[in-house]
Amino acid sequence: MAGRRDKPEEIVLKLRQVEVLQGQGKSVSEAVRQIGVTVQTYYRWRKEYGGMSRDQLKRLKELETENQRLRRAVSDLTLDKMILGEAARGNF
After folding, report:
1. Which residues form a coiled coil (predicted)?
2. CA of 6: how far to CAs of 11, 15, 28, 36, in Å?
3. For residue 78, what are the CA distances in angstroms to 17, 68, 72, 75, 87?
């Protein structure tokens, strides 16, 4: 069963809620149940987003987008170079 995906901003907020609940004396499993996710999901989120602020998260997403754009540009240029190399050798 596929559930809805939480946005990174929501994930950071939920991680903060778990920290607050743990500070109030609740166990990890109780706190995680209260925010509506599984313990496994909580630990996966904590591994990926733990300790991030919203500004850092925004910057991370910008960098990932820019990285994706640059990778696409490099692959296009590499393909063009390969095509020109084949044409220069006369193997067309």
Report:
1. 53-80
2. 6, 12, 20, 11
3. 47, 15, 10, 5, 14
| Tokens read off for 12 | 């950071």
Q: How many CB atoms lie within 10 A of CB 54?
A: 11
Distances in Å between the Cα of 87 and the Cα atoms of 15, 67, 68 are 55, 30, 29
Q: Where are the domains of the chain?
A: 1-52, 54-92
**pLDDT tens column, 30-85:** 999 999 999 999 999 999 888 777 788 888 889 999 999 999 999 999 999 999 98
Question: Residue 44 and residue 49: Cα distance in Å, rounded?
Answer: 9
Other CB atoms within a 10 A radius of the CB of residue 13 amount to: 13
The answer to whether the CB of 31 falls within 8 A of the CB of 45 is no
Token pair in block for residue 77: 């240029």
Helices 54-89 and 8-23 sit at what angle, rounded to 10 degrees? 140
